[in-house]
# Entry
Amino acid sequence: MKVSNNLSRISRRDLFKVAGTYGMSSTLLAAGTFGGAMSLANLAKAAESTYEKRFAKEPKFTLKLGAAGFNERNLLIERAGVLEFARDLESRTDGEIRVEFIGDNAICNQLSCVEKTQQGIVDMYSASTQNSAGGAPYLNVLDYAYMFRSRADQYYFLYSPKSQEVLRDPFEKMHGLKFLFSHAELRGIQLGLSWQDRETVTSVEQLAGTKNRVTGTQLGRIAMQALNLNPVPIAWEETLDGLKQGLIDGAETWASAVAYANMSPVVSQCVDLRFFCGTEHTAMNASVFDSLDGYLQDAVMESAYLTQVHVQAANEAALVNTVGFSTPQLPDTIFAQNNVRIANLSDDEIKKAEEMCSPEYQPALWEEWRERINGWAGGIDTYQEIYDEVRNNPHTLAENVEPRRWWKA
# Structure
């Protein structure tokens, strides 16, 4: 599996050897600064330097960040920004905040990170909003089908003050969590090896009747049922085995998730259905945030903003250069190496899918959950507010969306 050049020459044994001396967080933060191939000696030297900077003085706050299954390698594939955030926050606060990064499902996984942050076991977490919706159901607000037309729409909303009103404030009020930043992709259907020798999917009808993994999102299931995609709840950590054993035809997820989780060898077609959000977000326990001094709160927000800008550019590049989510594909990408075909659907087919399942065309399907989410948000029409806001987006490319500090009007 391709992992850029960054850590391809460093074994896990070597990584843990360095981490045993300088700590895992210092080692991972150091590893993330390399732009090319890295030797064990170079990593050790960088980790030592990072350690000395981080431990030059006693921090006022040490914050645990539970990063689900992420590590220094797969964060070079799906650019969720977690290590960049930790590094910038420590630097920006001159060490007054120290971040303890705990990934590889060591303290929490995609389903449990949100709850462990609410419980105070960790102070911050990174996981998908869809998996986290099981423990924080307000996150379903992002999952109305075809509310977002593109990744550009998603970034436009994340930067918009409207996201403060419709997403962040209700999320914090209801679940005690502060939404900081997120990567943005749109979910499709990732078909397993039983589709390897079949023609490339070009229509919604070809997917009808398939059995597909679904996340913790309730709204995602509504869309899948309307599209006859037979949603089957399977934990993210078990999805690889489900595809490998043929227990499911496919999985609803996004391209870089397939690549970072090493699912590419068991996926044959990446069907770009784009039917609802794939958002790997990072959030913080609101009580912990409130306990920080004002200038440190400002630092958290500025680091979140910088990370959001970084993720927007880095993940768009990684999709093409590392994952292979493009037509045509670059030859040395993860998808190309594993013969994962991109199944692009025409505008007419996307419109057909939208008419089959979206609140715009099938309002009755969404009525119960829409009313519930609107009530949680204080009575605003959450779907319509987001739908209307993102259609103010003037750009078609995600990298062209203008960054804004969403907490400032």
In short: The longest helix spans residues 294-323. Residues 1-8 have pLDDT under 50 and may be disordered.
